[in-house]
Sequence to fold (555 residues):
Amino acid sequence: MNDDQKIEKLKTFVPSENVAAPAPHRIFVTVAPAELTALLAKMKAELDTWFLSTISGVDKGEDFELLYHFGDTTGSIHVRTRIPKSDPRIPSICGVIPGAVLYEREIQEMFGITVENIPDPRPLMMSDDWPAGNYPLRKDWKFDRPAEVIPGGKK
Amino acid sequence: MKFNIPIGPQHPALKEPISIRLTVEGEVIRDADLRLGYNHRGVEKLAEEKSYVQNIYLTERICGICSHSHSTCFVQGAEKLLEIVPPRRGVYLRYLVSELERVHSHLLWLGVAGHEAGFDTFFMYTWRDREVVMDLLEMISGNRVHYAINTLGGVRRDIDEPLRQKILEGLKVLKARSEYYFKVGASEPTFVARLAGVGRLTKQQAIDLCATGPTAKASGVALDVRKNDPHDFYDEVEFDVPTADTCDVLGRTVVRIKELFESYKICEQILQKLPDGPVAVKAPRRAKPGEVVSRYEAPRGENIHYIVANGTDKPERLKVRAPTLGNYAATIEMLRHGYIADVPLIFAAIDPCICCAERSVEMIDARSGEERTLRFSDLRRMANERARTLPLQRNVEWPL
Fold:
């Protein structure tokens, strides 16, 4: 299936202005968070997009933008969705793509996004004593190195 | 009765410290869990504060084995954002280094697989011959590991005619040696019997868990970015994507050996067709606002970088997904229902660097409940012990 056929197919799933192809082999689809899992299920069934490369999060100020990167045998499809920073919730896609769990855990701890119905909500990368409420990939997060305390050292 | 065994996480010689927690019943692994993050360096956050040129060298340091794959993935995306087209000679040399890197990575992996299977002669032979390709890389770039040959708009060093001849001669040697291993592997029934049936991952599991690279190819899934998404180079050379359908460590070995031959083929075509001209063009410092997704087939699978530009000389966001992370979900599935003694082999089969050093294992004796610390060498000895007492599987054939 080439790019044009894929775009044609995607336009039957979402309004046609939501599908863009800025470069060869790259198709971007925009979707509302509530319709995400339904779209991915349709894409998996009809476009064979079972291979999720990763999920990228981008801090856009007021919103978070999430991109679900799918690879297939003729290129890649990228599903874009936006969620407000004030209420960052996104449904889990593990029901459709079971391999997504590591990437969902990653966006959960890096951006403080709540992934609803995630099968495994533990943090992925951060240490056990990572302070709560610190989400490193948010733009307003700055790292301040805490003062070093040497056990038994000078006060 | 079930017991938990933690393996890892720390060892100074490991590139990637990782903690595996196994739930075992006797010798059989019932469940496995991975704990990551012992080597988390915050590269994505750091990249937002570095310029595009600095980020080439930052991304190169993500990995110690496939360093070139990350910097290539980054520059091929950044070049799109900066709206420059590298000259053909630069592109050819860039992917020449890519393929030579794949050769050195696969030879390294073959040695590790031989070592973990108790076939140390294989390990010593492959690593000796790996020096041939390491020397070639050093002659091309000046470095053995971090080649630093990529730059925005091309590559930083050119090759001359005597070096071109040397690379062709080196490839001849490597090809002959690889064919020899091919035969040695085929006539070595204990090696084949040790690998067959270990670390099973069915095709459906590979699809569900989004496995990538040789792990997926060994389960019959022919996904290869070079073929599916030829980034303005790979459609100019001829090669095949090898797959296997044995779904085990043997299949992953076969796929990697076959990929070696494909890489030699690509290298030879590059050197025969090598265009004349400059190797790089000058790149602007700032990129216009935009976004790009860059994909690259690293030796271990698909590598993807997503770069967002905001009009300055620094990226707004750089998202990196290395292939090993994509294979962790599949690894858990492979470990399940295996034996403790197969853990080194299964782990080695997805990533050559996890198992190449000694590692401390806390073992809980099932009868006394007593904990004792095992070194990785002891674990390997136990593995070899099991291989020796294994009934020889006469019906297993080397599928090459």
